[in-house]
Amino acid sequence: MSEMFDAVDALVASRSALPSAEERKRLRVAHGLTLDDVAGVLQVRRATVSAWESTKKPTEPRGPEREAYARLLKQLAELYPAPVPATFTGAPAPAEARPLSTGPASEAAVMTATKNTQPPAPSGEMPEVPDALIDEAVESLYPTPAAPRPASTTRPSTSRRPGAKKAVPAGTPAGGADPRFENGPLAVVDVEDGKVLAYCTGGLVLDVPAKSLPSLVDWTLKEAKLGQPKLSGPGRPADPLLVLTEAALERYGLPVSFTAEEKDAGRIPEGHKVIKQLVRAEWKLTKRGFGPWARIYRPAKGSDRQCVQLCIPSWNALDPRFWGDAAQLPPAELARVLGVYAARVMTPRGSTAVTSLELMTALHPPTHAVRDEETGVLRQADAKTPGSLGSDPVDCAPPEAPDGHPVLNALDLPRFHVRGPGEKLFEEAYDWARPMTDAECTLRYLVGLDVNMAFAAGANGLNVGLGEPTHVKGLAFDPKLPGSWLVDLSHVDLSKVKVGKEWVQLDGSLLPSPFTPKGDRPTGPAWYATPTVAYAQELGYDVAPIEAWVRYDNGRYLDGWYGRLRDAYLATMADLGVDADLSPEDFLAAMDGYKERDPELTIAITAIKATVKGGIGKLRERPRGEGWRPGERWRALERPTWRPDIRAAVISRTRINLHRKIVKHASFTGQYPIAILSDCVVYAANGPSPLDFLPYREGKPLPGGFKLGINPGLVKHEGTQSVLWGEEVRDKFNAPELNLARSIKDGTVTDADNGE
Question: Buried b / exposed e across 262-281, counting CB within 10 Å, b at 16+?
Fold first, then answer.
């Protein structure tokens, strides 16, 4: 009889009531759990838990897993009651976008609690998981509740949390939460029903008592507990960021939008009443004034730094080219998007390009503290921090200088002189195309591949100069020495090159030169960055530099920057359902429509990618008005991060990385690219998918060739058009070498290709 009762209990348990898919996700996210956390406890795959939370392909847990899953959800529901009571059903609810996983509470603890405690179940059977083990593992996911904060009659602000504070997001510096910044890195300040509210990350909402902008700054520094821990040992914590909505701007006496004059100036006038309020309260503004990314500060006293950053979306602080429609999001959603970016990259300090440079500096601070041997007091070191660019800017070498740079004054060049490759370093991304061959015209499709985070991958492991350049002549080429080299590479013949250790024969007329952005073969001596000259050697040809500007003080300055942005990109793409370990077929399927799964996280992805490209571009920022004239210095030259040589090295290596894959692919398959634009390359194929022409064997790609995947340096499907489309477009504009890579994504060509 007892066996019958046990069978009845098991039957009931196998149909344990579960909340809707929407509620399952809400409960998991409210507690800061990742899919991996839950999968580890229940001894199932991550994809299985994801399927339980999604209704695009309805699945329901069965057997012991269902009972354990129900127990987990029940305990979470007790901790985080839904605003509206959840409806428990046996069927999944309507589909919802996949929410942000804010990082594992303690994945190692979960796995330790459950793994290896039970013998593996025979194939096809569900493992038995004891109740005690389930409870123990589930409890390991719960942080110990903090003691309630005693009520304070003097504290003028209160806080509300729809749910508990989330776990630390992926990418947050090690060392645990800093009590100084317990409310996160930023807040979106809004006004609702006459009350000022600050929406923080993790669902926290603070009541703001400040009635003026100076008092808002005071409140932020004294009570809001906003900010972010430093990213490196000798660095400093990030200042709190306040994002002001239009309602908040009106509340604090600021204009909702710029006038034409203010837009041109990029700031409100210095005589504005709010600026006068700040001055009376002894607050200062930086040289850029009160603009979209204003910084309000008081001079630091010792280690006591007083500074608040403002972000004003309606003044175009969140450029839609890099932030999508973030500026139109409601406050809570905007706090989420910016919070993801802040946790995984850093608290924004301006545009994505500005933030990118700030990230480089934060990871390699120019100065550090040392203890004075006589007094024992900490002071700033006399020498720069090893591995950093230092505090002082350095001038670039003449061939690295853009037109109008003051270093060119000493060359006494004729007026209106245009420098050629023998006088100026031209390291730029590819913009190359060629007519299709007769054989390619018989194929049906043009398929575009796009290299993920190409410039980030180009920066990974790259040795760059840290100090001033040294001019040398007759120096033998050293591939480990960063610099700019004047060398003749016109003898490199792409019809016969080394691929690895073997010489191979190729059709050089169908390949772009790796040495020029337009793919033209060099005709004589020209200036190249170290990676370009090293590639000529790799292809099997001797090089003999005529002269060079080299940097003996060098290092892998961008490695930390790359790692931070890579991790941010991969973690956010994983939240969107695109993991790094998917098979080629699953990867292509996961990438299809990923942007619609969670539009807010898609904004974060766009911003992360813009941070990569923007930072590389800003290393050679040009004058921006300000009455500048050729031959004069401009503001950007005073930054240690104004380094056109580093930009050139990254672009050089990125272009070479792509060419290496193209050569490897051609030598193995006999297929050649039709067009290349920066990190996108187009091939003709018989099918519409990358798998119709990429040489995969048993799921493994060609070593050194193109590989589908989400990691930086791997490729994704950019788009497919018909060969007929390509020929018609080129005929329409009478441009047989129109760069089809520019339009392969959606097929839209609105004008003749002018290279812009």
Answer: beeebbbeeebebbebbeee
C-beta of residue 390 within 8 angstroms of C-beta of residue 366: yes
Rounded to an integer, what distance in angstroms lies between the CA atom of residue 293 and that of residue 273?
18
Closest CA to 318 of 351, 284, 346: 351
Strand order from edge to edge, sheet including 483-488 = 470-473, 547-550, 483-488, 525-529
* C-alpha dihedral sign at 745, 747, 753, 756: negative
2 pLDDT tier (thresholds 50, 70, 90): low
Cα separation, 729 vs 747, whole angstroms: 9
The DSSP output letter for 700 is B
CA-nearest of 685, 690, 719 to 705 is 690
- The pLDDT of residue 178 is 81
CA dihedral for 683, 689, 695, 700, sign (positive or negative): positive
- For the stretch 522-552, pLDDT in tens is 999 999 999 999 999 999 999 999 999 999 9
Query: In this predicted model, what pLDDT tens digit does every residue of 134-162 receive, in sequence order?
Result: 333 433 343 433 333 333 333 334 444 44
| Calpha distance 347→59 (Å, rounded) | 39
Chain segment 446-467, per-residue pLDDT in tens: 999 999 999 999 999 999 999 9
16-64 pLDDT tens trace: 788 888 888 888 877 878 787 788 888 887 778 877 887 655 578 877 7
Q: Please state the φ and ψ torsions of residue 385, each to the nearest 5 degrees.
A: -65, 130
Q: Which of 253, 195, 243 is nearest to 220 (CA)?
A: 243
DSSP state of 165: P
C-alpha to C-alpha distances, 231 to 169, 414, 567, 649, nearest whole angstrom: 14, 48, 14, 25
3 state SS for 683-698 = EEECCCCHHHCCCCEC
Question: 104 pLDDT band (50/70/90 cuts)?
Answer: very low
Give me the count of residues in the chain.
Answer: 756
Give the rounded distance of the alpha carbon of 619 from its chain centre. Answer: 17
**Residue 518, φ and ψ in degrees, nearest 5:** -85, 0
Mean pLDDT of the chain: 85
pLDDT of res. 379: 67
Q: Quick one: tokens of 398?
A: 């003449």
pLDDT at 158: 43
CA distance 587 to 578: 7
On the question of pLDDT at 509 being above 50, the answer is yes
Task: Find all residues with CB under 8 Å of 236, minimum gap 6, and list them.
Answer: 230, 305, 365
CA gap 114, 111 in Å, rounded: 5
Q: Is 412 left (phi over 0), alpha (psi -120 to 50) or beta?
A: left
Give the Cα-Cα-Cα angle 114, 117, 123 (nearest 5 degrees). Answer: 95
- pLDDT higher at 723 or 1: 723
Q: Name which of 692, 703, 705 is nearest 663 in CA terms.
A: 705
- The torsion region of residue 427 among left (phi > 0), alpha (psi -120 to 50) and beta comes to beta
Nearest to 460, CA basis, from 678, 657, 643: 657
In terms of Cβ atoms closer than 10 Å to its own Cβ (0-12, 13-18, 19+), residue 542 is exposed
pTM: 0.77
User: 401 pLDDT exceeds 90?
Assistant: yes
